[in-house]
């Protein structure tokens, strides 16, 4: 089968389209023939070694497709079932072997396989951010950075579902339109305007209850300045680079602020939580209450281009690879 391998850390050019053996499922595992694989920013961190994995390895950790074979002792899933997953390495490939406890079944009548692949990682992230890390309540105000991105567009919609007022930040007018269509009440062009000043102006000087910040290095300080006293900064990524260590006294001076740095794996650690988040998303998609925008669809062999576009801030919504 074909797969995208990383033989050494580096730029998008290190993504190597190679022939590898089709993997065999062991006990408790299933082999999935992938209909689509999701591209995520974490793939960039792993390609560059920011999140180290010893090369060589097959990149990617999200996808959806059809179960083709199961290993010993597997009863809950059978060949022919449609399943999606996040957090299983090796999805930039035609087939992946996954532990069955990581697989979420879905009904292709209501959710297309490409859509299932597109929503798992970014959708469950938006879900835990709005439902668990800082469970938004009716009438609260949130600032969402990179609001037209993969996580961003879903985050705007879930924040609105919870009754919050959403202020998005984006880099271009085109992205501003998309953020608005995802429900953002206000959008700030943070490449042109001081977003902290704007967030304060929009909230009559009070500041927002929570900032969901995935941009990191470039936005962190001003994200703190956008908060009201006792507000929450949820730092969940570093698209512009990782945030350097901070002096905790700053949190005191700026109004008894909270900062957290969560990750998805800790929010889908049990089967119950995984199914709650994934099936909620599938239900909303099936009911047309959640729109997942696939902003770019690439052939598996074009994974390097998908990475260039993602890192170049050229993309909106989700990017997927089709094997
Ligand atoms: P996005 O689609 O959001 O793409 C990144 C966006 O970030 C860009 O489009 C751009 O939007 C913005 N950005 C701002 N500065 C930069 C920069 N210097 N370089 C590149 N992009 C920049 O990606 P994803 O939805 O895949 O991921 C968003 C973030 O969420 C990532 O940081 C990722 O690591 C994080 N994440 C964290 C998870 C967790 O559990 N902790 C899980 C999933 C994702 P604009 O042009 O509008 O500025």
UniProtKB/TrEMBL annotation:
UniProt EC number: 1.6.5.5
Enzyme class: oxidoreductase
Cellular component terms (Gene Ontology): cytosol
Keyword list, A-Z: NADP, Oxidoreductase
InterPro entries referenced in this protein's UniProt entry, alphabetically: ADH-like_C, ADH-like_N, ER, GroES-like_sf, NAD(P)-bd_dom_sf, QOR-like, Quin_OxRdtase/zeta-crystal_CS
Superkingdom assignment: Bacteria
4Fe-4S recorded as keyword: no
Residue ranges constituting the Enoyl reductase (ER) domain according to the UniProt record: 10-321
Matching Pfam families: ADH_N, ADH_zinc_N
GO molecular function: mRNA 3'-UTR AU-rich region binding; NADPH binding; quinone reductase (NADPH) activity; zinc ion binding
Name of this protein: Quinone oxidoreductase
Source taxonomy: Bacteria, Bacillati, Actinomycetota, Rubrobacteria, Rubrobacterales
